[in-house]
Amino acid sequence: MAVLLNGLRLVSSGNLSLHGIKSLQYKSTRILCQLPCKSSYQGRPFSNKNMTVELDNNTGVAVIQMKKPPVNSLSLEFLTEFAINMEKLEMDRECRGVVLTSSNPKIFSAGLDINEMYGKTPEHSGEFWRAVQEMWLKLYGSNMVTIAAINGSSPAGGCLMALACDYRIMADNPKYAIGLNETKLGIVAPFWFKDSMINVIGRRATEHSLQLGLMYSASNALKIGLVDQLVAQDKIMTHALSVMSEWLAIPDHARQITKSMMRKPTLDRLLTNRESDIQNFVNFISKDSIQKSLQLYLEMLKQRKS
Ligand SMILES: CCCCCCCCCC/C=C\CC(=O)SCCNC(=O)CCNC(=O)[C@H](O)C(C)(C)COP(=O)(O)OP(=O)(O)OC[C@H]1O[C@@H](n2cnc3c(N)ncnc32)[C@H](O)[C@@H]1OP(=O)(O)O
């Protein structure tokens, strides 16, 4: 529910924090800031080991720029930091939208850090998988508008992050690829990866894509609807911010309730099966045959370089 008070718009975000944390929070946003603001930019950067987060008080838009060398692989540490930052932004009354991007001009994210899945104890694997779940729950279940500015390649877990956003803009470069390529590594995308993709590109295209572990060039990703728009690399952030302002022109409460209506069943499915999903992951990843596949894949990645 939104009410006007002294030039401030108080927007109830209700209980749309969709993953178990029932938050009734009020976000105050100067109405003028739905339009381009003339006042000076007041960025507030915080937390910066694996990413920088900068919130523009004038627009209510935060930019999360992933910056974990060399390829933004999603390690346990990265995922934990990401979830904390999302939580902080979610609770910040001034933040209404997030643009997710990368400081690496060629790679959005290389997906899950394979080293976290290879040669680890079951306890570590379980902790890691819970962090992967948490990243997705925070992003897919966010009340904020989320836009992925995909300024480089984005396989597997990187593609999942983009799929969890509300809108995807990819740099128009034939060298960049995006997709859920898990089967190529001999592993299986879990049901909530699959659901995320179905919700974006539909069932038939997802089945084709997942079985073959397809990676799509930027133009093919646009054709199948895996991304919404292609934009020149140097325009991607400006464009993402301009799309964001269109989304933020919609009253928060109406957009958030609509988002919840669309996403809640998918979120609930993981929330209901969270522990068994972790157990499945640990059992699967501990198999000798899967460890062998991951070992070969890691070696292949290293050899590719030399
Ligand atoms: C019954 C059902 C039960 C359910 C069971 C669940 C099973 C698990 C499901 C797991 C789900 C998701 C999995 C993933 O996300 S796995 C990760 C998939 N990612 C990839 O395949 C990407 C691999 N990387 C690349 O293709 C390329 O590296 C790149 C990203 C395109 C970048 O290319 P580049 O030429 O710029 O850089 P490159 O020289 O290749 O790499 C630089 C160094 O980075 C290392 N590296 C790359 N990717 C990863 C990664 N994902 N994890 C860890 N390390 C990575 C690479 O080895 C190089 O290292 P070094 O410099 O040689 O030491």
From TrEMBL:
The keyword Nucleotidyltransferase does not apply. Pathway: Lipid metabolism; fatty acid beta-oxidation. Gene3D superfamilies: 2-enoyl-CoA Hydratase, Chain A, domain 1, 6.10.250.170. One of its GO terms (molecular function) is delta(3)-delta(2)-enoyl-CoA isomerase activity. InterPro entries: ClpP/crotonase-like_dom_sf (IPR029045), Enoyl-CoA_hyd/isom_CS (IPR018376), Enoyl-CoA_hydra/iso (IPR001753). It comes from the Eukaryota. The keyword Methyltransferase does not apply. One of its GO terms (biological process) is fatty acid beta-oxidation. PROSITE patterns: ENOYL_COA_HYDRATASE. Keywords: Acetylation, Fatty acid metabolism, Isomerase, Lipid metabolism, Mitochondrion, Transit peptide. Homotrimer. Key enzyme of fatty acid beta-oxidation. Able to isomerize both 3-cis (3Z) and 3-trans (3E) double bonds into the 2-trans (2E) form in a range of enoyl-CoA species, with a preference for (3Z)-enoyl-CoAs over (3E)-enoyl-CoAs. The catalytic efficiency of this enzyme is not affected by the fatty acyl chain length. Belongs to the enoyl-CoA hydratase/isomerase family. This is Enoyl-CoA delta isomerase 1, mitochondrial. It comes from Chiloscyllium punctatum.
